Give the backbone structure.
Amino acid sequence: MSANKGWWVPPEGEDSVSEKFLRKTRDSPLVPIGLGGCLLVAAYRIYRLKARGSTKMSIHLIHTRVAAQACAVGAIMLGAVYTMYRDYSKRTAQDTGEK
């Protein structure tokens, strides 16, 4: 038996989990930003849970969910706009190069 019993080692030729995460982060950098925004909003709203005043718990949780989803959707929209702009600028550069 090996000394590292319990540790998962990927098969040869496959990336480790951290390498795969870094590669996917380079491919689409706004996904971790959106996830981080969700986590920050949720953590802040949970921190502010005691100071919610007379607001019902269900209303507070709904507002927390909506704010966290807004961060994720905002990151997705920024990514889509950036991709469209990048594709448009490549296309116009190719069009001017052909003339």
